[in-house]
UniProtKB/TrEMBL annotation:
Gly residues composition bias: residue spans: 147-178
Positions of region (Disordered): 9-118, 143-178
Bias (Pro residues): 73-88
Pfam families named among the record's database cross-references: MMR_HSR1 (PF01926), YqeH-like_C (PF21516)
Organism: Platysternon megacephalum
Residue ranges of coiled coil: 453-480
Domain NOA1/YqeH-like C-terminal: 609-709
Protein name as catalogued: Synaptotagmin-A-like
InterPro entries per the UniProt record, alphabetical: GTP-bd, Mito_transl_resp_regulator, NOA1/YqeH-like_C, P-loop_NTPase
Keyword vocabulary terms for this entry: Coiled coil
Residue ranges, compositional bias (Low complexity): 9-29, 53-72
Annotated Gene3D superfamilies: P-loop containing nucleotide triphosphate hydrolases
Domain G: 397-448
Molecular function GO labels: GTP binding
Amino acid sequence: MYRLSRALLGALARAPPLRQAPGPGRLLPAALRLGSPGGLSTRPRREPPAAPQRPAAQGPGSEEEPFVFPEYVPEPPPAPAREPPAAPSRPERRPREKRQHRVTGRPDPSVPPSGVSCSGCGAELHCQDPAVPGYLPSEKYRRLMGGQPGGSEGQGALGGSEGLGGQGALGGSEGLGGQGALGGSEGLGVQGVLGGSEGLGGQGALGGSEGLGVQGVLGGSEGLGGQGALGRSEAHRALQGVVCQRCWLLVHHQQALHMQVSREQYRNLVSAALRSPPRHGRCPLVLYMVDMLDLPDSVLQDLPQLVGAGSNILVVGNKVDLLPGDSPDYLKRFRKQLLRSCARVGILPAVQGSGGQVGRTGSQNLVDVHLISAKTGYGVEKLISKLQRSWKCNGDVYLVGATNSGKSTLFNTLLQSDYCKSKAPEVINRATISPWPGTTLNLLKFPIINPTSDRLFRRQERLKADAEKTEEQLSDDEQKYLKCLKKQGYLIGRVGRTFQQQKSKTVIDFDPDELSFNMEEEPVFSSNKPKERVEFTYNELKDARWFFDTPGIVKENCVLNLLTEKEVKLVLPTHAIVPRTFVLKPGMVLFLGALGRIDYLQGAKSSWFSVVASNLLPVHVTTLEKADSIYQKHAGKTLLKVPMGGEERMKEFPPLIPQEITLEGIGTLEAVADIKLSSAGWVAITAHLEDKLQLRAYTPEGTTLMIRKPPLLPHIIDIKGNRIRGSACYRTKKPPPLVENLKANGTNKQI
């Protein structure tokens, strides 16, 4: 075996060298270097210079062959695979901002106003000036009018012989009532748009026999000069149910257009309606709506002068569903606060004297006070019962209040209730609702149902049956709607209808000739026939009493007047408010966005600051040394959020003005006062007993800052969770919602 291996190795040594270049991983012969440290080298070694060859001895025994050892040359690591050229990297997708809807169309000053009211805000429809309420682009206006916006004076598409043609186009001498209650031809000075021709002219400030119309449905025999029992004209038929450009943008694009309507024009329109001569022999009832979140600023100081002497006023406190209950009797406390605020402006309840006679303590008669939620329906059924039992159908009812108090929401809720005629929801369109102040620009109305004894009895039977139902017995749609309301408010009500218009059975028109076609013809499907609109008859409305929704009175010194439409959505709360409580030491500062600031300057101990504001409005707590720099750096940006728009926005925003405040604590279980930062919200201060606090509060220049004593929610300190470790903030706690007119079960409590 040894000789065989020696022979093989010798033959391998004598073989001619391979021409192929040695590649990686090949076995190459290498002489074993004796005496080398490792014995085996994998490195290429230098060959010594060749020695002179000696003649080899002949014979098998005389040949001496060197011993070779196969050396392994390591294979180099594989080269990295060449990646295909990378596609150009796409930029990260940023959240797509909602683009503002572009307003298109052109005005045409040569076309006279239509005399028809917008079904959303009540302004007269026209195409003359985009800055005037009720504007429609001239292209759409002509298309709706069938290309004949002017008409002739005899029959005329805009109102017949004397309605809106000729010299009476803006409510002049022959058009709609001569001098009228709103001052002649120009109405309120805005080309008659806010009441001129159709608004409040004519006889007795109500435009002839039915001068105000049912949002363009009625109009009266002289008011719109048409033909037929209701004075219908071609303009009313063409523009019936149409909304103006402003209402369309508010509803579908949440975009507000600024209108050239002053506060005095709003006041004049409302005052003229309320001071008009009594219809049906009795003064109207004023349903005055107050925003409980903005109390007492939402009670207008000049309300007595606005409604006139001897008026009957029923005060309604709205948005109670947004405030959490801090004690079992908190609604009674709300009612007392509302009565106290009304008494400050001179609206006092009637006093019953000796002999049972009712005397008046002021120039106005406060009939009653109700707390409701126009959005969730809480308290609305009780309000309807009160109106039908006490006021009945004795006269008209006017809904009056400041902007953003919820009047249009209540108007729409009552339109779907037992307070209006059963046919009214199908005839009258719903009012436009928006957080932007001053959405309603003119009077909207619906006819009130006559509450006869039979109708009252049937209504009470329905209310009793509804009160016996549990949530599981409601339909799937009602349960879904109720679940949605529970997320939005603390108090929920169910507004139903007893008297509904019987819907006629649907008749399917079948024409076999329209369905027959041959192979050479393609089927042609006729377009849907226009839906016939339900209308009132003359007998149904000749003696009707009306419920009017009036434009909101713009509040002075309100922070909402300084904000854009996006900022207003963040500041005005639309869901149940969750209080946020912080414990502050002297030398700390609390920011409510960039709209308000409270400095805790001096005090013996820590105090609690409970913020009651929109859940979208951020609260930031810092030290007094850092407060100014934080405001300069973050005002208009993400941290403080409102206002928004960066440095450019803050240049035009008014600066914060300070006001010194001194309070004395009454205990750790009850707040001593509310610091109300205009309409942005308020901060309830709770301090230790007899602890004197020195505070400094800031609000934007031109807005109102007030101290409310007693506070609206004195026990708000109880509506908080545990304190977050290492922070001045407490965990929030949201009380459970309560449902009215629903039988109590395991998860719901009866109110």
